[in-house]
Amino acid sequence: MLRLAFRTLRLRKGGFIGTFIAVFFGALIVASCGGLMETGIRANAEPQRLAAAPIVVTGGQTFALPKEDPATLDADDKRKFEDARLPERVRLDTGLVSRLRSVPGVSDVVGEVSFPLATGGQPAFGHAWDSAALTPYALVAGTAPGAGEIVVESKSGLKPGDRVEIAAHGKSEAFRVAGVAGAPRPITQAAVFFSAADAARLSGYPGKADAIGVFTKPGADVEAVQAKVAEVATGANVLSGIDRGVAEFPEADSSGTNLIVIAGVAGGLSVMVAMFVVASTLSLSTQQRSRELALMRAIGTTPRQLRRMVLGEALAVGLLATALAAVLGPFLGEWLFGQLVENGVAPAVLRFYQGWLPAVVGAGAAMLAVFIAAFVAGRRAGKIRPTEALAEAAVTRRWLTPTRFVVAALCFGGGTALGIVTVAVMTGPIAASTAGPAVILWALGVAMITPGAAKMMTAILQWPMRLLGGIDARLAVLNTRAGIVRAAGAVTPIMLAVGIATANIYLQTTQQELANQAFTEDVRADAVIGSAAGGLSPDLVQRIQAVPGVAGASEYVTSSVFLEAPYDSSDEGRPAIGLTASGAGATIDTKVTQGDLKALTGRTIALPDVYAKDFARGVGDTVSLRLGDGTPVDVEVVAVTSQRRGFESLLLPADLLAPHTTAGLAPQMLVRATPDVEPAALTERLREATAGLPVSVGDRGALIAAHDKDQAVGAWVNYLLVGMIIAYTVISVANTLVMATVRRRREFGLQRLTGSTRAQVLRMAGFEGGLVALIGIVLGTVVSAGAIVPFCLVAADSLLPMGSPLIYLTIIGLAAALALVATLVPAWAATRGPAVDAATSGSD
Hints:
By secondary structure, the protein is of the alpha+beta class. Strand 10 and strand 11 (171-182) form a beta hairpin. Helix 15 packs antiparallel against helix 21 (700-742) and helix 15 (484-522) packs parallel to helix 23. It is elongated and about 100 Å long. The model has no long low-confidence stretch (mean pLDDT 83). InterPro entries: ABC3_permease_C (IPR003838), Macrolide_Exporter_MacB (IPR050250). Belongs to the ABC-4 integral membrane protein family.
């Protein structure tokens, strides 16, 4: 039977091509997402400035987060803890440098200090000159820097003796160029070298190092030395090989985690869609040759032989498709990675990987879909008794099997349960974490009962269609009802495309709009001062508050902190905002229900009321935090605030939070105007007051635009991934409809012989395509509503999502246009030539 299966493929080009397309694109998307996941797991970036040191030591960026209340835990039981990633750079004590020099096999140890600066308006990073050996940089002119001097790169165009204005750590200072140095390899980040004392002063972290480079003695075993270094540098990360790149580019590590999540969500969703698309395509292909299969059963072919033939055909097509997808997958994966880099989601220094494993996973997922779909199709064909086979082949009516019923019931039950959880338990934008999976469950459930739903909707829509289209529409309705299982094969991918696109896009637009509303409601600033060199000087607040027309000014710092006591099992890092107490009340619009924000000084905190209630903490109580760089601190509650649900932030003094961020200083300052001063006038006054300082002054619009840009990055990722899946389902819609229409050439020929004109046949086909599109659109809308409505009730207190209605109109317009084109074009091709030739031809 397998030999027969291979022979029949030559005569079934339509079904072969349709199945090939469905399997190929499914495997291609999964394989490309696998490449993104492998890149995220490896999170490798080639070291540049630290390339000369075989071993690099950095601060540990994780800490042990308890899974249970620490009061009941044994600290030595590692199973009760998990690693939580700290959002800010953890620096090392420079005292570690001298201790590492005594490690056997170590020849030299060099500490690395790195801080952002601006020179001539161009961004760069400052370093101590002794760390030049880590690259290594070598002088090509001049001498090493002394106090008040710098060494610049040869590509800077400067020469020894030049005077340069350097903006760093919130201040500007003039330095003399002492020398010019060159590196043996391209360096992404421009470097400026200072004396050790100047570098420590300008970095803002004296006695600290961002990384430590360890050089080994000639002939020493690097791995052995690395192990000994790890024993001395307890709690630090000791890196070698390509892993050293993470020490230089810490964003590569965090971006790797993001890539894993992106690839996992997109790949998983693609697998689910591919399962249904491939199953739908194979089911349609099997139905189209049901007469052939019925005749084979009637002449004595056993059910087992029939199943083997159908399965063999499908697997042969699947193997060809997955083999081609495995070859092209890396190209799509690299293109997707390039798009993520271009839009700021992943750093350019991250190395893209696409090994053999993603190709195997993509091929395996596609072949599994083929096997399941072919097994179900072959099993159904083999179960029909020979005496019933020919009658069944004429018009396929049976569709509701026990398996379909059970799967549909489970999916609808799961979708309903997620909807209840969304409404009853979730708050704010986190409700999307349950609303998203609900889309898939509703889509799977509807896909299981699509024939029945399509039949019911056809019965409802037949009257308006007959009224609008006359005899042609009536024939279209009769044809659709007679071939309802065939029509359902085309409805399913339309439903998937409309449902998934509508739900995911409107979930994203609603989240984005809610975030923007929360930000604009909370921030009352009329102007914003930004840093051009790594942060604002802490004494700038007093200077700005003295400007006429300023009602209040506050530093604005953002980070994430962990709540250690009281214990909260759901804590994965909470957003925190650092403010200056004297200007906090004027620049933010947070309602204070207890206490006073003016008391937000020293080691204090303002808790959102929902946290205060959950943790039974009020004014005067103490909570324990772990700041972004891992520093533990106990703070006193001095205020309780009422904030928008789902967008709550802990409020801390700026001078407490800022030193524990990577920059070490506040990146922005919010300024509020007095009632008698216009915002535009305030902006001009601030520009005059900050003239000569390394800062930029913008109005409220600039602040909101910057926030919108941050939100847009996350939105773009979602749109890209949804776009990939929608593109696949669109291809599947066209594929399915073309297959279904081309196979009807003989039917169209007979219809023309009985008196219909070619134009009437095409109008009938157009009404059929429109009816299929309408059914798919309605079902897809129902699927999306199952996720959107619960989410919007919780997050926006509305039944409708936030976002332009044009999004939905565009989605359904594209679905309808695609269905009509994919029906009419092949129908036009199938009705060319004499009707008698079409009526007497085969169906392929």
